[in-house]
Design brief:
The complex is a heterodimer of chains A (179) and B (177). Chain A is mainly α and 179 residues long. Chain A has six helices and no strands. Chain B has 177 residues and is an alpha/beta fold. In chain B, strand 1 and strand 2 form a beta hairpin. Classes of the chains: A mainly alpha (179), B alpha/beta (177). Chains A and B meet through helix 3 and helix 4 of A and helix 4 of B.
Chain lengths: 179, 177
Amino acid sequence: MRASSFRHLLPSAVSAALFTLILAVAPPQAFAADEAAPLVTDPQLEERVMDLSHKLRCLVCQNQSIAESNAPLALDLRNQVREQLAAGKSEEAVVDYLVARYGDFVLYLPPFKGTTLLLWLGPALLLVAGAGWLGWRLRRRAEEVRSAPHLTRDERARARALLDGTSPGTSPSSEEPRS
Amino acid sequence: MKAKFLVPLALFLVLAGFLGYGLQLNPREVPSPLVDKPAPQFRLATLAAADTALGVADMRGEVWLLNVWASWCVSCREEHPVLMELARDKVVPLVGLNYKDTRPEAIAWLEAHGDPYTASVVDADGRVGIDYGVYGVPETFLIDRQGVIRYKHIGPVTREAVRDVLLPKIAELSRAS
């Protein structure tokens, strides 16, 4: 784009000022016009176009759907979608048309097939592996607790005496060792 | 069991390996499903003369390159000298697909920078571009004698890409019947 000169800038500044002035002096009723006319002739078709466009990825700004993107290509693709739906093609046919040209990449919902197996099953595999590992750990810990060495009654009494700070043997604990 | 403390380190290294590999990839390069498929047909007016048309069918029997370009495309300037060299060496016919451009601007661009193309065809509304899965200009397609797309280069063609990929592929395709 060429930088616009002041010559171009000036009229727009003047008209902006004029517009503001009109807004300020005109009675508010002047603007209470009818509802805005719909921009599309066929709202039903437009809804289908937008529904489908939300499922298609724009290849230029890759994290936007072609419904959201303002890239010229997204506009072209939206027009293609609209044109083909208007011509009576089904949603599937339009998706196939785009996939044939741009690959599965245009789909936000990738198909289930050989190359996407890991993508689709990976989370489930991780879940199963995690649950398996957790179960194994829990079982092993239970095993460790069960096979931990038990203290005899004397040992227990000595330990208690040591903890209490009294000399061992003076007050044997009446507590039974838990099994 | 003594080496247990190394487990997080090992996990980190694996993760770092994956991420490092990911950094080497170019997310802008979307593999084209059109490779090894017949080139989509078109018949478009040439840039030089609006009343003459050129299509895929006319190139049958030749190994050729289809280069998508536009006067508004900045990276096209980057690859332009490389294309000029290709044209000078007369490697293969180089057809330009002038994508979503205006005729006067395209002609002016070629006059200013030099015209490497055997011919350019005008795809003003980008329809043929969509058929070829074009999503970023420049893109270059290598098409064989039978009219099958054999390779797609996304982004500006570099001297390295010509030397390491395009020329070997062209030689291979030229040898094949």
